[in-house]
């Protein structure tokens, strides 16, 4: 598996090169959110606000009203927790094209509860006019800019930084409103998002060897949530649906699936893997994923529960599982 | 120096603002009256002399509410049309405390920007002439009722206009209570840091807020020194003196954001309101006699009601 580093930093500079109306806004986390190269390349399009997110958000709304596209970068918690009223009234109500890049989702930081965004999707999803995207790999990170930027309104992007694996073929960009079908099957439907998708891929491979067939979809557009293929998959399974997310099970992907299933009258069972209504603490990602039960092993246990069977899949086997580049449903041979 | 005729015109408009708001408050048994008393000269000076706004062809009748902004509502209306057409050289106006909306509507009528009958829609269902205005309400173009957000939004607009090379300024009307808010000071430090002298702020320092006297709720003084230490260019004026109000808007720009602290009286022009001290924020009549007293005052001072 290919691991890429500082992808967004390089990509943004290239992408924004011929887009003079793109402004990048920072709240004292310029290197930490990978906008240092942009700052150096286009100093006139970079605005530093210091540790003052509320002003930055309302200011962004003002810039957007004049035809600019503010790309706000900071840690996710400082977007939706620190400046919620400002997002609601200065950005979301007027449906302004402000792009908010929220870094450090869930367990991706050892920074503890103050820095770990565990309920951002729940909060932002309840705002009218808001679009929500989440990145799960290097290809998502590289191609999210085009799709975020095509939206006529505000967009919140759950972003990744640092070393990021490439799970999806580079030639297959994130497509707005379309899930990536990573595996077909009819025993279980699995929806995963963000960094949980890599874990899910490991587990699905192992489960296949035990004769469990899983329809695995990687979700990158959390709002709006109306991909026909996903809605169909929610009912097309023998045992039920599993959701898997690096977020509290309240208000995120699991809740979205529950709402959609209830609305469609799907009575299949739904099991939600995610943070179970609890705060995290400062520790490594691997440790937290295990402790809070959102890793590949957690998925194995959940499938065992749903199918009432035991597979005796070794944790080390899951870790060692070789991940080959995944192709989406656009390429039939990869299914 | 402003000629006598212009000053008289501004004073007449201020008087008209008080009259219209008082008339409304009497008819509706309450309302934001003290805000009209304190800010009538500020708003009439801004509209008639300080701001370089485009004209409206004729006083506009406020349109009915046509939905909030969203992807599926391209017909969404902005209240900015009452402030004239947008152009690179024209100024823009931003009312930060939307609790002053009624005063703004009265000011728009007095300056021939809004049809007088429009005020009859005030606080009526399905109307844009809302009690606490939104960006579809006459004279408004941003969401500012959540206090402290107006200045940052106006600053964003002013910054963007400077990037585009536009020469028009942003004028922001603020209340003194907003200087208790952290975001206001975040915006001040940002405007000062980026040397934004294309923004001017008129603050109604009437010394009162919802809970009572500002000095008893949460002190904001010395406001002048606080703002100066944040890098603002501050003028302290009598907010009922037209000449004093206008003078700071004519100074040569020097890279600092302009703040005009207008010290005002919350019962200016309607002195019998003094008995409500310190609860001026929203005047509500408890007895018919109170209402009668103001009705008589209105008749004596301004002649008949509308």
Structure commentary:
- The complex is a heterodimer of chains A (335) and B (306).
- With 335 residues, chain A is of the alpha/beta class.
- Chain A has helices spanning 7-15, 36-41, 53-65, 76-80, 84-92, 120-125, 138-149, 196-209, 228-235, 253-263, 285-291, 296-307, 315-320, and strands spanning 3-5, 22-26, 46-48, 69-75, 99-103, 131-134, 155-158, 163-165, 180-183, 188-193, 214-219, 221-223, 240-248, 269-275.
- In chain A, helix 1 runs parallel beside helix 7 (138-149), helix 3 (53-65) packs parallel to helix 5 (84-92) and helix 8 crosses helix 12 (296-307).
- The radius of gyration of chain A is 19 Å and the shape is globular.
- Residues 330-335 of chain A have low confidence and may be disordered.
- Chain B has a five-stranded parallel sheet, with helices on both faces. In chain B, strands 1-9 form a two-stranded antiparallel sheet. In chain B, strands 5-6 form a two-stranded antiparallel ribbon.
- Chain B has nine helices and nine strands.
- The model of chain B has no long low-confidence stretch (mean pLDDT 95).
- Chain B has a single domain, classed as Thiamin diphosphate (ThDP)-binding fold, Pyr/PP domains (Rossmann fold, 3-Layer(aba) Sandwich).
- Chain B has helices spanning 4-27, 34-50, 101-110, 149-163, 182-193, 214-217, 223-229, 242-246, 288-302, and strands at residues 30-31, 92-95, 170-175, 199-205, 208-209, 212-213, 233-238, 258-263, 283-284.
- By secondary structure, chain B is of the alpha/beta class.
- Chain B is globular, with a radius of gyration of 19 Å.
- Classes of the chains: A alpha/beta (335), B alpha/beta (306).
- Chain A binds chain B through residues 47, 49-50, 52, 54-55, 57-68, 85-86, 89-90, 93-95, 128-129, 152-153, and chain B through 68-71, 135, 141-143, 145-146, 148-149, 152-161, 163-164, 182-183, 186-187, 189-190.
């Amino acid at each position: 598996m290919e691991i890429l580093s500082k992808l967004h930093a390089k990509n943004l500079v290239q992408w924004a090169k011929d887009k003079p109306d793109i402004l990048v806004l920072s709240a004292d986390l310029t290197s930490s959110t990978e906008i240092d190269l942009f700052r150096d390349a286009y100093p006139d399009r970079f605005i530093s606000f210091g540790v003052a997110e509320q002003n930055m958000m309302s200011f962004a709304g003002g810039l957007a009203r004049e035809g600019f596209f503010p790309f706000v970068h900071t840690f996710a918690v400082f977007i939706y927790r620190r400046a919620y009223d400002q997002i609601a009234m200065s950005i979301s109500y007027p449906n302004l094209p402000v792009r908010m890049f929220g870094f450090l989702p869930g367990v991706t930081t050892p920074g503890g509860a103050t820095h770990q965004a565990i309920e951002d999707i729940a909060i932002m999803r309840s705002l009218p006019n808001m679009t929500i995207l989440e990145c799960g790999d290097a290809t998502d990170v590289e191609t999210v800019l085009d799709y975020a930027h095509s939206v006529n309104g505000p967009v919140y992007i759950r972003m990744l930084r640092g070393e990021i694996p490439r799970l999806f073929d580079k030639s297959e960009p994130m497509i707005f409103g379309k899930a990536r079908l990573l595996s077909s099957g009819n025993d279980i439907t699995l929806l995963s998002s963000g960094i949980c998708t890599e874990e899910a891929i490991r587990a699905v491979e192992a489960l296949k060897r035990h004769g469990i067939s899983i329809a695995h979809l990687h979700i990158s557009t959390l709002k709006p949530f109306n991909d026909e293929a996903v809605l169909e998959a929610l009912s097309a399974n023998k045992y039920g649906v599993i959701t898997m997310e690096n977020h509290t099970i309240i208000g995120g992907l699991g809740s979205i699936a529950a709402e959609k299933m209830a609305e469609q009258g799907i009575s299949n069972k739904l099991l939600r893997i995610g943070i179970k209504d609890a705060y995290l603490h400062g520790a490594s990602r691997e440790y937290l994923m295990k402790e809070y039960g959102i890793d590949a092993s957690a998925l194995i246990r959940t499938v065992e529960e749903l199918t009432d069977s035991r597979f005796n899949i070794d944790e080390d086997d899951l870790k060692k599982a070789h991940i080959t580049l995944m192709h989406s449903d656009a390429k039939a041979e990869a299914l | 120096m402003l000629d006598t005729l212009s000053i008289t015109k501004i004073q007449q408009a201020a008087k008209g603002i008080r009259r219209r708001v008082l008339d409304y408050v009497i008819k509706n048994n309450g309302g934001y009256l003290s805000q009209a008393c304190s800010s009538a000269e500020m708003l009439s000076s801004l509209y008639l002399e300080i701001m370089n706004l485009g004209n409206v062809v004729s006083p506009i009748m406020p349109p009915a509410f046509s939905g909030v902004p969203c992807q599926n509502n391209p017909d969404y209306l902005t209240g900015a049309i009452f402030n004239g057409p947008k152009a690179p050289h024209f100024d823009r106006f931003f009312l930060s405390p939307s609790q002053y909306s009624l005063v703004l509507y009265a000011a728009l009528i007095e300056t021939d920007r809004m049809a007088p009958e429009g005020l009859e829609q005030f606080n009526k269902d399905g109307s844009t002439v809302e009690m606490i205005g939104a960006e579809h309400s006459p004279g408004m173009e941003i969401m500012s009722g959540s206090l402290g957000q107006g200045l940052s939004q106006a600053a964003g607009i002013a910054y963007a206009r400077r990037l585009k090379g536009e020469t028009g300024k942003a004028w922001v009307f603020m209340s003194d209570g907003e200087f208790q808010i952290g975001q206001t000071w975040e915006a001040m430090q940002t405007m000062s840091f980026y040397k934004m002298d294309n923004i001017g702020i008129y603050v109604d320092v009437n010394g009162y807020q919802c809970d009572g006297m500002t000095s008893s709720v949460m002190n904001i003084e010395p406001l002048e020194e606080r703002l100066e230490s944040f890098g603002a260019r501050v003028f302290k004026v009598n907010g009922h003196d037209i000449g004093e109000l206008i003078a700071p808007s004519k100074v040569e720009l020097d890279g600092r954001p302009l703040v005009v602290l207008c010290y005002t009286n919350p019962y200016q022009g309607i002195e019998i309101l003094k008995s409500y001290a310190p609860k001026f924020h929203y005047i509500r009549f408890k007895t018919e006699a109170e209402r009668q007293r103001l009705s008589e005052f209105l008749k004596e001072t301004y002649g008949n009601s509308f």
